[in-house]
Amino acid sequence: MALRLAGRGPVASPLRRIDFGQLSATTVTAILAAAFLPMALGHEHDEGNIPDGETVSAEPIDTTLWIHIFVQMFAFGILFPLGMVLGIIKSRWHVPLQVLATAIALLGYALGHLHGGRQFVSSNVHAKFGTIIFFLMVGQVALGIYLKLHLEKGINGRIRPIIRRIHGINGKAFPVVSWVQMLFGGITALGFCQGDHLGQCLAHFIMGSAFIAYGILLTLLLLVGQLWLRRTGRSQEFFDSVVIAAWGCVNTFTEHRWGTAWVRNDWQHTTMGIVWWCAGLAGVWLSRDRDGSPKRNFIPGFVILITGWAMSAHPQDMMISAMVHKVFGYNLMGVGITRIIEISFVLHDKPGMAEDGSQSHSFQYVPIFLLFASGFMFMGATEEQMALVKNSGMDAVAYILILYSLAFLLFLFVHMLIYVYDRSANAQKLAQPVANGRAAPGTRTEEDGRLGDAGEFELEGLMTDDEDEDDASRRNLLKHGEDDLASPNPALRNGGRS
Ligand code: HEM
Ligand code: HEM
Fold first, then answer.
1. Atom of ligand 1 nearest to the CA of 81
2. Which of 435, 438, 422 has its CA nearest to residue 482?
3. What is the model's pTM?
4. Residue 433: pLDDT band by 50, 70, 90 thresholds?
5. How far apart are CA 164 and CA 146, in angstroms?
6. Which runs of E-coded beta strand occur in 271-357?
């Protein structure tokens, strides 16, 4: 359905009115995507060589599938997330980059279906989710083309903001969905996480991803979100504690099948849930000072500390597994300890290093990086992975160093994406020395900054309607609103564009 928008559907007549040269690349991508539709609906799986009770055959992964893996990691892991940031800042490179990424993703798609070598059962989770991602991608492109058409009159005036919202939400979900699909790809390729292993896989991948997600959120807050956080009128520990309490509640009731015997690690998991909500409630309480103003506290850091200790104390069968769990435990305990040091002794309970939220202390990156490392360490420590490493000739130290490398790469990539965002969203702030936090409205520097902004970053023609301007000014709140919440300046809010 979405594809018809680009071809003969309701958009056909406006298409004739718009500049074809400008759209040709996106249209071609949409048509290409349509051509891949039959493929997305599945291919014949040859399962003849898969032994009974297994989900993969013994053959090695063939070159076609290896290329699929690298091509998709490049498209979904690097290009789409970068494109997403360019979309958020309304860069004129958004559309070309996403068109390129879509074309590469389609190539990767074909390769995923055309591979020989190792065989996989047709019901594998990566293949199933692959179809969903395909439709999300095609839908996203279709919505993107609609936005690019700039249909703003009549009914489109009402539809457009909705479409933009959906495109925005789906676009921001893309990196998360891609992450999941990459993990599914890894376990499918190796035939992992079947039967009894499923529960353990879920625990390790969900919790590991959660550590990384927390690390990414803390990076965002540190680099571009300090003022946003301050505007909420709450301390960071309030939010952390609420999440901890809620998560604890869920775990209290889900980690043990009530009414049955207490088996294996049920006790540990359930009591962990209990301590989380107990601590979380205390954390919420401590996040306000006597006068009601936001106050920092040690509780989320402490919860992470004891979680690291408890998780690493799980009995392990294999030597290598014990070692990886131990290092994981040190990392997570390190997150907790360094976070408490950061809050209490580096920041001295202040929300950030500088009043205007623009600075950070080198120590503040320590807990964040350790979160990334803990995430990778935990995700890489399931029984099956441990057995694989043990049989590979690699030792625990080498394996752990590889996991650290992955953590550094993702840490770097997140910083790079935030940099791209920051350069545009806070361009003025970065470009000029400011008095009282920002230049007076209408001064030369501000005018220059805005012109530079428009020239360098904006997608031409994107900023034509009122919602666009509203949206842009809201997005730029960081830039303008922080010091002047009491008297927002309409001249600034309108961005001075006509
Ligand atoms: C290839 C076809 C695509 C086209 C033609 C396209 C076009 C556009 C346009 C015109 C906008 C500006 C909308 C506005 O605010 O008026 C936009 C924003 C955006 N796009 Fe795309 N896009 C495409 C693909 C993608 C993909 C694949 C992603 C996901 C990774 C994505 C993520 C975003 C995001 C996050 C925004 C910002 C939305 C917001 O500010 O809330 N786009 N896109
Ligand atoms: C987010 C990026 C990715 C997407 C969208 C994607 C999508 C797909 C699709 C649609 C298929 C065909 C499934 C079918 O047979 O119906 C496939 C096959 C496959 N992919 Fe991926 N893939 C991605 C990344 C990866 C990664 C990172 C790996 C491995 C580390 C991987 C491993 C595999 C394997 C083993 C198959 C063969 C499964 C089969 O024949 O059923 N993929 N992929």
1. 30
2. 438
3. 0.82
4. low
5. 9
6. none
